[in-house]
Amino acid sequence: MALRLGDTAPDFSAESTAGPIKFHDFIGDSWVVFFSHPRDFTPVCTTELGYVARLKPDFERRNVKAIGLSIDPVDSHTKWAQDIKETQGHALNFPIIADPQKKVAELYGMIHPAHDEVFTVRTVFVIDPKKKVRLLITYPQTTGRNFDEILRVIDSLQLTDAHRVATPVNWKQGEDVIIVPAVSDEEAKGKFPKGWRTLKPYLRLTPQPK
Ligand code: BEZ
Questions:
Q1: Minimal CB count within 10 Å: which of 101, 107, 126, 179?
Q2: CA dist., res. 153 & res. 159, Å (int)
């Protein structure tokens, strides 16, 4: 059955550009962005991997590790890494799993046969330190992902884990957030000392908690 939000991310062992990986050990106490590529030496993937490498400081600030996957072998990934560095100006600084048997791809539902019978689509999983799937997005092979959006969702998830808030449409860091309806006004007085604006009893906006 397809993975869903809240499921435990399945564990697996695989080879990667950083050596053998046991996925749950790799996650450790971090958040993880786990994403698949149709295959090596493809143009869209090349741009994505360079961009994710560039984002490393942004990931680290949020306690996030990136890890990619394609069904090509490690030696192919290693050769491709040279092209990524040359064309994108950022060397790979996170592992890419080699999955020639497609075991991990099948486990995570990364092959959508009606779209492509052989190669993985562009899936993204955000997994939290408890190993739970917190976000899953699937893109077609011809559309490069927006990793700034994935960072934005991680910011929202981390904020809502720490405070009883939700984030409104197109929310970005520093903007007002929503007090969840389960929090009464009485409880909100203690939790949100800066106060809030009540547009409707179920729609209360408060400055982003620190
Ligand atoms: C790519 O990754 O660049 C790609 C993959 C499949 C079709 C088109 C582009």
A1: 101
A2: 10
Ligand 1 centroid distance, CA of 45 (Å): 7
- Determine the distance separating the centroid of ligand 1 and the alpha carbon of 144, expressed in angstroms: 9
Angstrom distance (rounded) from CA 75 to CA 54: 23
Greatest C-alpha distance within the chain: 60
Contacts of 86 (CB under 8 A, 6+ apart): none
Ligand 1 site, residue 45, Cβ cutoff 6 A: yes
Q: Look at the chain and count its residues.
A: 210
Q: 73 CB under 6 A from ligand 1?
A: no
CA separation for the pair 19, 97 (Å, rounded): 9
Is the C-beta atom of 47 inside 6 A of ligand 1?
no
Task: Give the separation between CA 133 and CA 7, rounded to whole angstroms.
Answer: 6
Task: Tell which residue, 102, 130, 79, 78, has the closest CA to residue 14.
Answer: 102
Digits of tens for pLDDT over the chain (210 positions)? 799 999 999 999 999 999 999 999 999 999 999 999 999 999 999 999 999 999 999 999 999 999 999 999 999 999 999 999 999 999 999 999 999 999 999 999 999 999 999 999 999 999 999 999 999 999 999 999 999 999 999 999 999 999 999 999 999 999 999 999 999 999 999 999 999 999 999 999 999 998
State CA 18 to chain mean position distance. Answer: 19
Would the CB of 42 count as within 6 Å of ligand 1?
yes
